[in-house]
Amino acid sequence: MGNSKLYKGSLNTIILKLLEEKGKMYGYEITQKVKELTKGELKITEGALYPALHKLEAEGLLDVEVAKVDNRLRKYYKLTEAGEKETINRLAELEEFIRSMQNLVNPKWSIE
């Protein structure tokens, strides 16, 4: 994908938003949901996802639950209270960024 670098800066916000909607998810589930929502346009690699998850956890934005599924341990990530607040802030910042980019890319020329 040509604009994958554009997504890279938004990865943490994407993760936070998905967890806000789903409650808790495990890593592979996050990658598949992003792929589904973007109709295959964005594929998050494990090499990008897990460092982002660990960073968000270290920042106190995520909690981790470990559950045994089919004789394997699976880590589920969910938002902390601080993570819920930060999600709101980051989504607002992202929306403002998108509005600013739209104004730059498609300015409304008017004589006033």
Write a brief caption for the model.
The chain has 112 residues and is an alpha+beta fold.
Largest sheet: 3 strands, antiparallel
CATH level-four homologous superfamily name = Winged helix-like DNA-binding domain superfamily/Winged helix DNA-binding domain
Poorly predicted regions: none
In percent terms, what proportion of residues is strand? 15-25%
Q: Using the alpha-carbon principal axes, give the shape.
A: globular
How large, in whole angstroms, is the Cα Rg? 17 Å
Query: What's the arrangement of strands in the largest beta sheet?
Result: 1-3-2
For the secondary structure, the number of strands is: 3
What's the number of helices? 5
Organism: Cellulophaga geojensis KL-A
Domain Transcription regulator PadR N-terminal: 15-86
Protein name: PadR-like family transcriptional regulator
InterPro entries: Metal_resp_DNA-bind_regulator, Tscrpt_reg_PadR_N, WH-like_DNA-bd_sf, WH_DNA-bd_sf
What would you note in describing this structure?
Pfam families: PadR. This is PadR-like family transcriptional regulator. There is one protein chain. The protein is of the alpha+beta class and 112 residues long. It has a single domain, classed as Arc Repressor Mutant, subunit A. The protein has a 3-stranded antiparallel beta sheet. Strand 2 and strand 3 form a beta hairpin. It is globular, with a radius of gyration of 17 Å. The chain starts with a helix and ends in a 7-residue tail after the last helix. 14% of the residues are buried. The mean pLDDT is 88.
